[in-house]
Amino acid sequence: MRDLEAVRRGWRWGGVRPASWPEAAQPVPERESSLEWARAEPVRSLRWLVQRCLSVPFVRAMTHLRVEGQEWVQSLDGPVIVASNHTSHADTPILLAALPERARERTVVGAAADYWYRRPWLGRLVSLWLNTFPFARTGGAQGVLHSSSHLLRSGWHLLLYPEGTRSPDGRMGAFLPGVGHLAREARVPVIPAHVRGTRRVMPKGRGVPLPGPVDVRFGRPLRPGPEETSRAFSQRVERAVRELGQGSREPEVIGSWIERWRATGERRRRVARS
């Protein structure tokens, strides 16, 4: 005990490290969890109740939400990636409110791990409310792509913001190639989406939403070509989102009238079967 007391008194807590010592190693971070509990019962039923009775009515009352192209999400049986621009924290609840209820229940949202999951209580809250999972914006992408691909192969839709962060001035940034790689690996289509008006509802740096009109447009599903690289496909998705934001009515962007009619008919047949 005397020896330990002498060491304690002589130890220079937080002092200067001798030059002969090696640099202090960074601690190994814990492996990020995909939060599977958020997609199991009874949490799924609780989230459906919160969104159906609180979140969606509040969003529609605050924004007078107008949605175009909803039939593209309703017509697909398998999993899809919804790729949208990102200007506000309000984007996620508004996009979820714009989705049909059946698709909303099956949608998982990629949330920035370094922002939403720094505080465990906040990460659990958004996972419960919005069905998020940690999406790392820095470091190696292999783990993120693996967890995202696992969710898609399990039948979940995936809502992503390929810009990687919110736009500070409302202008859309370049898409990262990860969305193209993920679509090729999981062999799922990508539905481009554009949200307009959320920067007025909740601009960057503001924590309280304001009422204001919001428009959401979904485009025709896109699939990577056989010889198309992940980066080229991501750029094609980016162009589709930009054209949706510019109000394009081109068939390559929103689909032809016959394609939209068939998508609506497929939805009606599915409802009749169920």
Identify the notable features of this structure and list them briefly.
alpha/beta; Glycerol-3-phosphate (1)-acyltransferase; single chain; 7 strands; 274 residues; globular
Question: Can you describe this structure?
Answer:
The protein is an alpha/beta fold and 274 residues long. It has one domain: 3-Layer(aba) Sandwich (Glycerol-3-phosphate (1)-acyltransferase), CATH 3.40.1130. 45% of the residues lie in helices and 12% in strands. It is built from 13 helices and seven strands. Helix 8 crosses helix 9.
Main β-sheet description:
7 strands, mixed
Percent of residues in beta strands? 5-15%
Which spans have pLDDT < 50 for at least 5 consecutive residues? 26-32
The tally of structural domains comes to 1
Characterize the overall form.
globular
Distinct helical segment count: 13
Overall average residue pLDDT: 85
In whole angstroms, how far apart are the ends?
Answer: 75 Å
Secondary-structure arrangement, i.e. CATH architecture = 3-Layer(aba) Sandwich
CATH topology description: Glycerol-3-phosphate (1)-acyltransferase
Q: What class would the helix/strand composition place it in?
A: alpha/beta
**The level-1 CATH class:** Alpha Beta
Number of strands: 7
CATH superfamily: Glycerol-3-phosphate (1)-acyltransferase
Helix and strand run: HHEHEHHEHHEHEHEHEHHH
* Percent range of helical residues: 40-55%
Read across the widest sheet, the strand sequence of neighbours is 1-7-6-2-5-3-4
Secondary-structure map:
Blueprint: H1 2-10, H2 43-63, E1 66-68, H3 71-74, E2 81-84, H4 91-98, H5 101-104, E3 107-112, H6 113-116, H7 120-130, E4 132-135, H8 142-153, E5 157-160, H9 178-186, E6 190-196, H10 198-201, E7 215-218, H11 230-245, H12 251-254, H13 257-273
Parallel strand pairs: 1-7, 2-5, 2-6, 3-4, 3-5
Antiparallel strand pairs: 6-7
Helix pairs in contact: 2-4, 8-9, 9-11
